[in-house]
């Protein structure tokens, strides 16, 4: 099932996981997948480590989710650390495993590097990777990409960032998923600018429920997202009370999701951090309010 065929038929709900690095983390991920499976997500995605460092685990997890759970799965694929021929072989493995959806990304620099340096014989930009995949597979694969309501941290100009996005979409993306954000105005203003620039593909908001104050502050600093003052003040007030932080994060994310869907967002993509509690609480609240997603098996 192509994700593009689900979009536009009612709000989609999807989860992002990352490959675990330890046996304990692997067990945690298995528990999370089992727990969230009951919520019948429209699809899930699995990230690709910096520099392509988790490629084998990414392919293994996506394949297993697709095969064993019946949930539609999307593999992340990045330019980082791989020449074209290597990327071609990775794509062959993904397609041979029956996976039909790929999130095409430039990727982050390997750990210890501060700027992205393309691999010899590889790609510098995600737009080049998108064009490469389309040349190889045409419409056989559904391609997603990333976008940044508050602009990419490496781009100094929001207008330039938007034109970079349009170039990437014009190379063949079917939809895009946003970087995390905490103020819905950021999303709606971004969508308005994108539509004015001629971007017509679905723009799925990415939501990360706050579960830890220090952790979310590190994430936002790294990706250039901002936390609204009122939320930041409340987060600081309760930062040493883990349960209070969790409940604040769930409440804010739930309110965000309701506002986004009421405003016409095509769905919600949850950055789960391989944990189920916050995402389950938010999505259960939405489903209790009567929000339903299209059935992938229909």
Under CATH at level 1, the class stands as: Alpha Beta
CATH architecture: Alpha-Beta Barrel
- Rounded to the nearest angstrom, the radius of gyration is 18 Å
| N/C terminus separation | 11 Å
Order of helices and strands: HEHEHEHEHEHEHEHHHEH
Gist of the model:
With 298 residues, the protein is of the alpha/beta class.
Keywords:
single chain, 298 residues, alpha/beta, TIM Barrel, eight-stranded parallel barrel, 11 helices, 46% helix, globular
Please, could you describe this protein's structure?
With 298 residues, this protein is of the alpha/beta class. It has one domain (3-286): TIM Barrel. Helix content is 46%, strand content 14%. The chain is built from eleven helices and eight strands. An eight-stranded parallel barrel has the order 1-2-3-4-5-6-7-8, surrounded by four helices. Strand 1 (12-17), helix 2 (23-37) and strand 2 (43-46) form a beta-alpha-beta unit. Helix 5 packs parallel to helix 6 (158-170) and helix 10 packs across helix 11 (277-288). The longest helix is centred in the last third of the chain and has 21 residues, at 242-262. The chain is globular. It starts with a helix and ends in a 10-residue tail after the last helix. The model has no long low-confidence stretch (mean pLDDT 91).
Helix-strand blueprint:
Blueprint: H1 3-6, E1 12-17, H2 23-37, E2 43-46, H3 55-69, E3 73-78, H4 84-96, E4 101-105, H5 126-137, E5 142-147, H6 158-170, E6 175-180, H7 184-196, E7 203-207, H8 213-223, H9 229-237, H10 242-262, E8 267-271, H11 277-288
Parallel strand pairs: 1-2, 1-8, 2-3, 3-4, 4-5, 5-6, 6-7, 7-8
Helix pairs in contact: 5-6, 10-11
């Amino acid at each position: 099932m192509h994700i593009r065929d689900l979009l536009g038929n009612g709000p989609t709900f999807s989860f992002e996981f990352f490959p675990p690095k330890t046996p304990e983390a692997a067990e945690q991920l298995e528990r999370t997948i089992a727990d969230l499976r009951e919520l019948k997500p429209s699809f899930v995605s699995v990230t690709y480590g910096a520099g392509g460092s988790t490629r084998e685990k990414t392919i293994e997890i996506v394949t297993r989710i697709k095969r064993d759970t019946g949930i539609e799965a999307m593999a992340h694929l990045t330019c980082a650390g791989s020449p074209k021929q290597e990327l071609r072989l990775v794509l062959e493995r993904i397609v041979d495993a029956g996976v039909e959806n790929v999130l095409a990304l430039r990727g982050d620099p390997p750990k210890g590097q501060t700027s992205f340096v393309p691999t010899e014989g590889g790609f510098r930009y995600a737009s080049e990777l998108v064009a490469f995949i389309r040349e190889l597979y045409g419409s056989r694969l559904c391609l997603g990409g990333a976008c940044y309501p508050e602009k990419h941290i490496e781009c100094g100009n929001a207008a330039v960032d938007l034109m970079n996005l349009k170039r990437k979409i014009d190379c063949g993306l079917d939809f895009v998923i946003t970087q995390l954000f905490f103020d819905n105005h950021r999303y709606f203003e971004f969508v308005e600018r994108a539509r004015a620039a001629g971007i017509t593909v679905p723009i799925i908001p990415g939501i990360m429920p706050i579960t830890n104050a220090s952790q979310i502050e590190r994430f936002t600093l790294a990706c250039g997202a901002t936390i609204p003052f009122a939320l930041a003040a409340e987060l600081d007030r309760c930062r040493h009370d883990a349960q209070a932080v969790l409940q604040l994060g769930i409440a804010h994310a739930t309110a965000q999701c309701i506002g986004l869907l009421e405003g016409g967002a095509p769905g919600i993509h949850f950055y789960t951090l391989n944990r189920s509690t916050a995402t389950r609480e938010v999505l259960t609240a939405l489903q209790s309010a009567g929000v339903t997603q299209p059935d992938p098996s229909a």
